[in-house]
Amino acid sequence: MKTDTTLLLAGVKDRLVRTSEPLYVQIRNLLAEKIRNGEFKHGKRLPPDLELARQLGVNRLTYAKALNLLRREGLVERHARKGTFVKALHDARALAYGANARLVGVLFDVAAEEAFHAKLFVSLHRALTDVGLAVKFLSAENSADIQFAQLRSLIHGGRVVGCVVWSVMTPEQIAQIMVLRPSTFPIIFLDRCVDEQASDFVGYDDVLAGRLLARYLLDQGHRHVCVPVLSRSLQLSTIRDRLSGLREEFAAEPNGGGDGIHVHELGDEAVVPIRDILRERPDRATVVALDDTTALRCVKAAREASVRIPEDLVVATFETRDLCGDPKYDLTAVRLPVEEMGTRAVSTLVARLGGDTRSAWQERLPGELVVRSSTDAIKRDRTIEILMSRFGLILDRQKRRVGYAQACE
Question: Are residues 115 and 127 in the same domain?
Fold first, then answer.
């Protein structure tokens, strides 16, 4: 006869799907939901890890990663030689500040439709509400000064217990914030890490992402890539790291390619000069945009100039929003784990609120390559190149045979 836990976990297993969201994050979300709605009662002992992983149909490592997230958030606790137990939700909600102070500031760079990180916001909101924390959302409208003032106000306001920040502030402003904030007020920075500051950070492994995209292009036969980028964006660690990854992989290419990355700095108007790029590579140009907003501008500029993608222009980028996969764009990209970043950021925040005092917590998450139609021309041209090469070898062999026959006569 099946136990209550087995029946509940069967419901979790049935809801696991293969998406861009890792399985362990899905497991964490579904188990947190059952704790929140009371299906898993306070003090309930969970089955042993190996047994629970088997019931969920995943390996033990995947389940362990989900359990670590829940433990960091205070939703479960492990006792040596006794097992893992569900904690009362009100214990997790109270955290270190009492039940009446449950507001977390979520500060984004901008809330405009084109640039809003909707998937990230949903992930943050869900993870925060799972542990009884409410969201106070603020947009800086891409102004470093506005965001600095907002964050300083939240630190001194008394109602907010911590913040998650997609920063547009300068390194100097962040340094001031880190001095102003009390040690009991956690701030988790997203996406962009300020190397000089010992701050908590959850973002992407942008160097690895750059190398992954470069490796794909090189394997498809491309040795020259144009990288359009706003001059001011080069100050951001995200952009610098992606560019560094591209350059490292091209430099390591044994068949040439070390000088194949050409940075095209854009002015403040952010207009991508497609015709100029095509003049530099009249046969066919390849563009790598270091963020998806620039990639969409490339597509728009190409269409306005009657340039075909991928026949005349190949475009690849780094994806943090669903727009890249939209049939209107269909851009090859390294998809970065947006939902996972939100979940990890909240886990870190809750751990800090729970009294974790370890040194700066910095985590970089790997992405995955998604090949779409915007690079189809690379595949077609590479196939033709290979066929022509083989055809040339056949002709050479035929010539040698004719020469040998004539010599024998």
Answer: yes
The 3-state DSSP class for residue 262 equals: strand
**Total length of the chain:** 409
Phi and psi of 241, rounded to 5°?
Answer: -70, -40
Residue 37: CATH number of its domain: 1.10.10.10
Query: What domain count does the chain have?
Result: 3
Q: How far apart are CA 253 and CA 256, in angstroms?
A: 6
Q: Which residues contact 144 (CB under 8 A, 6 or more apart)?
A: 168, 169, 170, 173
Q: Would you give the DSSP letter of residue 287?
A: E
> How many whole angstroms separate alpha carbon 216 and alpha carbon 223?
11
Three-state DSSP string of 299-360: HHHHHHCCCCCCCCEEEEEEECCHHHHCCCCCCEEEECCHHHHHHHHHHHHHHHHCCCCCCC
What mean pLDDT is predicted for residues 99-113? 76
- Euclidean distance between CA atoms 331 and 292, whole angstroms: 9
Count other C-beta atoms under 10 Å from residue 212's C-beta: 19
pLDDT of residue 342: 94
Q: Kindly give the residue spans of alpha helices, DSSP state H, lying in 102-260.
A: 118-130, 144-157, 171-180, 206-219, 237-251
Identify the pLDDT of residue 15.
61
- The domain that holds 315 is classified in CATH as 3.40.50.2300
